[in-house]
Amino acid sequence: MTEKENNEDSEKLQAQLQRVIALLSKYKLLQGFVNLQDEIDEALADSSIQKESLDELRQLIDKLHPADIAHILEALPLDDRLFIWGMVKPENDGEVLLEASDAVRETLITDMGLHELVAAAEQLDADEIADLAPDLPQDVMEDVFRSLPIAEREQLRAAMSYPEDSVGALMDFDVITVREDVRLEVVLRYLRRLEELPDHTDQLFVVDRGEHLKGVLLISKILVSDPEVRVGDVMSKEMITLHPGDNAQDAAYAFERYDLVSASIVDKDRKLLGRVTVDAVIDFIREKTESEALSLAGLREEEDLFAPVLKSVQNRWVWLAINLVTAFVASRVIGLFEDSIEKLVALAALMPIIAGIGGNSGNQTITMIVRALALGQINSGGAWKLIRKEVGVSIVNGLIWGAVVGLFTFAIYQNVELGLVMMLAMLLNLLLAALLGVLIPMTLRKLGRDPALGSSVMITAVTDSGGFFIFLSLATLFLL
């Protein structure tokens, strides 16, 4: 889609959200007016205007795509969300649950009964049920298992057995297979008998009698080739194959690098297990990006905007506590130089400049390193080269911006020595920020942790304390 089309879709979705909010407000206003009457007039209680608002709201929800419904639910306070959720058609419940964020999905599931949850799950494919499984009660999953045909039951077991960040967790079992010895005309007749093709079908998978993958048959080849030609003559043996245990991030790179729409998943014997489609990869990338953004800010999990206060506090308190400790450390660093600050009050006004620039530079470095780690661009052999490169960048930035800050300081305080101290402190703090900007995420990765987890909080804390100490030490040494 072009940027213009994306903007139009976004504007349309926002207009739908505003329409839902307006109709909700109108309905609640009328309902509140009815409830205020001492003696409810039946005609008033059954107001045609109120029914009209409710019907219009229901019709609007019915026309929306499940993804759009999920977006609207996420933008509403809890009471309004559950009210709208009650209007969603039962046959759409499963799809909306899939599209909703984890935090919002939890509130929707809590509002549903056992039979509603089972019915919603039964509408989904095995791979989609596996996505919902971690959020569904155990007794619901047991009922769903019992209701599925044996083949789908085995598919669901397989999908749930793979780690969340593996290719197997993204696997779609809905594939079309053909044999290489049949004619294209037979393939076309077979496809026409289907009600519809699986989503994102750009190729068929050519297998032998043992379901071992032999090649792929592009849909475009079927359309332009002679119907009397055999599949084996036009199929492609050059294809991207994935294994269920592969890292999902690596699969995402393959889709981006080779512009894939779908790719086969095979076991070690090249037996076809399923496929991965571009929509699953895009969802994975979006979730990964959101998770990294939250981790950089020190948030433990995605948070419902309208979650209860205590739940939001639980999500945020850990790194706030850590930040408070580092703030105490920074205050004690400043306390060590109280005498120096009393003798030269200008130091108190200049300290935040050193700390702020250091924190900004450190965050830039961390963002680059976390991205490079996610893309697999950093190996053990290249770590020292990366550190040297970042040190070089910091030296150049330190000299340039240190000179700017030094001249600014001289212009205000007419003190050459103070300007030089500012320049040197800026240079040293940028060097510290560069080193830690590389080492913090790489150390976290080596310890098996998410390299983005709290990195932004940690680098800011260190550059604040370090910047204060470097600047005040230099000032004490050369100015007092």
Summary keywords:
mainly alpha, MgtE N-terminal fold, Tetracycline Repressor, domain 2, 480 residues, 3 domains, 5% strand, 22 helices, CBS-domain
Largest sheet: 3 strands, mixed
Arithmetic mean of pLDDT: 86
Rg over alpha carbons: 30 Å
Using the alpha-carbon principal axes, give the shape: globular
At the fold tier of CATH, the topology name of the largest domain is: Tetracycline Repressor, domain 2
**Name given to the CATH architecture of the largest domain:** Orthogonal Bundle
The low-pLDDT segments are none
Q: Which strand-content bin applies to the residues? A: 5-15%
The neighbouring-strand order within the major sheet is 1-2-3
Euclidean distance between termini CA atoms: 64 Å
CATH class of the largest domain: Mainly Alpha
Assembly of the depicted chains: single chain
Q: Care to count the β-strands?
A: 6
The ordered H/E elements are HHHHHHHHHHHEHEEHHEHEEHHHHHHH
Number of DSSP helical runs? 22
Domains (count) = 3
Give the class from helix and strand content and strand pairing. Answer: mainly alpha
